[in-house]
Design a protein that fits this description.
The chain is mainly alpha-helical and 209 residues long. It is built from seven helices and two strands; from the N terminus they run H-H-E-E-H-H-H-H-H.
């Protein structure tokens, strides 16, 4: 299946969820209208490209995503921004290492799926960082590092247009989706645990009375 099709499918799910109620979830430091504009423009950007040279062009959705991530990073407080960038470098290093192991002579390439690295990136981002802006910044940097290094190592003779912009977008949407799903699951589990604790404490208090 085409990576750009998977990316568009995940965008559609995110857009439906956002406009059907997930926008009520708190997004620290990000205006609701900004998320709406990003989601609205993304499918239009995916239809275009920006020619750099006669042999190199940049995917429009890739550019729009990076511009949006840059604006998002600017809104994050400096201390947390550096923390997110550090986490992104760490996660990217892990992704590069696992990718190299998978394709090494003793690796696991026969059972390797391109989705594995983005899923791991999303889970690590959710583990290290709590808010959406921080997770998105870390995920974006880690995927830029891992995809860039992979393109240079695996195909040093190809043009920069072959850095798999579509594959990067696919991985980005997968990683962000899993990061938010993991964060929502942990938040739900914590809230459920608190309710059970309060309920149990109330019962014990009633018995003492």
């Amino acid at each position: 299946m085409s990576p750009i099709f998977i990316a568009a499918f995940l965008w559609l799910i995110a857009a439906i969820l956002w406009w059907s109620g997930w926008r009520e979830e708190p997004i620290e430091g990000v205006p609701y209208w900004a998320v709406g504009i990003f989601l609205a423009v993304w499918p239009l950007a995916i239809l275009g490209s920006l020619p750099v040279t006669s042999s190199v062009s940049l995917n429009g959705a890739w550019l729009w995503t990076l511009i949006s991530v840059g604006a998002l990073a600017w809104r994050i407080p400096p201390a947390r921004r550096w923390m997110s960038l550090s986490a992104g470098i760490l996660i990217g290093s892990v992704a590069i290492l696992l990718g190299r192991i998978a394709y090494s002579p003793i690796g696991i390439a026969h059972g390797y799926t391109p989705w594995a690295i983005p899923i791991l990136v999303g889970l690590l981002a959710a583990l290290f960082l709590r808010s959406l802006p921080e997770q998105v910044l870390a995920i974006s940097l880690s995927l830029i590092l891992s995809e860039g290094i992979a393109a240079i190592v695996q195909a040093p003779g190809e043009s920069m247009s072959e850095i798999r912009g579509a594959a990067w977008l696919e991985g980005w949407w997968i990683a962000v989706s899993f990061a938010r799903l993991w964060s929502a699951a942990v938040k739900s589990a914590v809230e459920h645990g608190r309710k059970l604790t309060l309920k149990f404490s109330g019962k014990r208090g009633g018995q003492r009375l």
